[in-house]
Amino acid sequence: MRMSVRLIEASQTNKIEIVRSLLADGVNPNIRNRYGETALMLASCYGYTEIVRLLLAAAANPNLKENDGETALMWASGGGYTEIVRLLLEAGADPNIRAKSGYTALMYASFQGRTETVRLLKTGTENISCVSDEPYDMTLRRLMTGITMDAWV
């Protein structure tokens, strides 16, 4: 099995020592699978904080997009993995990137009701005036203006 494939598989199954070893052997942390996904995206999607740290330390690019235009930040945001979102932002992840769907990381966090992640993302990101009256956007508007989900049930 190619080492690059092993890195992606180890990253999505939380095999920290294998990831560490492969990166030490010089495997490119930005290698992609057939869907355009990187090890960083998959570790972010599953909430594997230590692997995210390892990949970022090895210069994984947090702004790469998979085939649908989604980024590691979008996946971590939708999953509510606030610590990973913080790490990605500190590494230069752009919270204003839009997927092919037109959605941003902030929108993905909003759709899933990830209030803590929304709070982290809303500072310095999208302008609330760009939010429409669509149901998902209304959720985002409520979260961004400080109305908790419990208050509007």
Polypeptide structure, described:
The protein is an all-alpha fold. The chain has nine helices and no strands. It has helices at residues 3-12, 16-24, 39-46, 49-57, 72-79, 82-90, 105-111, 115-122, 135-144. Helix 1 packs antiparallel against helix 2 (16-24) and helix 5 runs antiparallel to helix 6 (82-90). The protein is globular and about 45 Å long. The N and C termini lie far apart (51 Å). 42% of the residues are buried.
Q: Sheet bearing the most strands, described?
A: none
Report the span from N to C terminus: 51 Å
Helical content stands at: 40-55%
Number of helices: 9
SSE succession: HHHHHHHHH
Q: What is the general shape?
A: globular
Structural class: mainly alpha
The number of distinct β-strands equals 0
How much of the sequence is in beta strands?
Answer: under 5%
Q: Which runs of at least 5 residues are low in confidence (pLDDT < 50)? A: 127-132, 149-153
* Average pLDDT, all residues: 87
Q: What Rg do the Cα atoms give?
A: 16 Å
